[in-house]
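Q: I'm building a small set of examples for a reading group on sequence design. Run inverse folding on the following structure and report the sequence directly after it, with nothing in between.
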């Protein structure tokens, strides 16, 4: 079935976009694990908002045990150069991670399902692309699936810009929604960036992406099939 626009009427009235984003990674995992050899395993990774938890009681106890910052000396702490009210970035993360090995697992591939909070501010987009670039540099293949029609930015092209590259197939108009697979591999003493990109359109089927697990080994990620399974599981039209 073709891709729906889950951010505008009428489909946003059936269910919220985060319901789709929450279910889709599980369907991708089920599909991938049917293709993966025994030494590989895929799993969903969906921490929403802040990933840091603080034990308040322990924190307060630690503060009570802190020594005098002046340590009995006459030195006085200077006024900070910057003291402004701000917010920490909190972006939703919807991912599928593929690991090699069961006990000492090594991350080999990540599928990023873009959320509105990944695209809403320049800082959020920079954080997202910096994360993807770091994964690529460590030999982890990255797929970016973006069906967020409410924000007119393309994180795939911004990732390429961060690396100092561009995709000539997306010139002159940058797509609002897209699906891409990327890897950065050593070859002949050099590092080669390879990407497979698709412009998405609502009302059209979704593509199949290669998920690279090793230099000469990839498995297919049939986005159309996993999306359709998500729709059926949620009983959506």
């Amino acid at each position: 079935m073709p891709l729906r626009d889950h951010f505008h009427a009428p489909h946003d009235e059936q269910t919220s976009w985060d319901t789709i984003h929450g279910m889709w990674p599980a369907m991708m995992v089920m599909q991938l694990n049917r293709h993966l050899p025994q030494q590989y395993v895929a799993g969903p990774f969906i921490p929403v908002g802040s990933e840091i938890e603080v034990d308040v009681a322990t924190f307060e106890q630690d503060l009570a045990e802190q020594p005098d910052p002046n340590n009995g000396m006459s030195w006085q702490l200077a006024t900070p150069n910057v003291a402004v009210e701000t917010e920490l970035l909190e972006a939703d993360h919807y991912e599928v991670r593929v690991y090699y090995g069961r006990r000492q697992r090594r991350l080999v591939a990540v599928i990023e399902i873009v959320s509105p909070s990944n695209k809403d501010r320049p800082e959020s987009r920079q954080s997202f692309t910096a994360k993807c670039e770091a994964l690529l540099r460590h030999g982890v293949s990255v797929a970016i699936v973006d069906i967020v029609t409410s924000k007119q930015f393309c994180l795939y092209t911004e990732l390429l810009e961060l690396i100092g590259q561009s995709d000539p197939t997306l010139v002159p108009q940058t797509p609002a929604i897209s699906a891409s697979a990327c890897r950065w591999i050593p070859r002949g003493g050099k590092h080669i960036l390879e990407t497979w990109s698709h412009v998405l359109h609502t009302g059209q089927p979704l593509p199949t992406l290669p998920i690279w697990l090793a230099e000469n080994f990839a498995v297919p990620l049939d986005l159309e099939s996993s999306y359709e399974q998500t729709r059926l599981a949620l009983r959506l039209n």
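The chain has six helices and eight strands.
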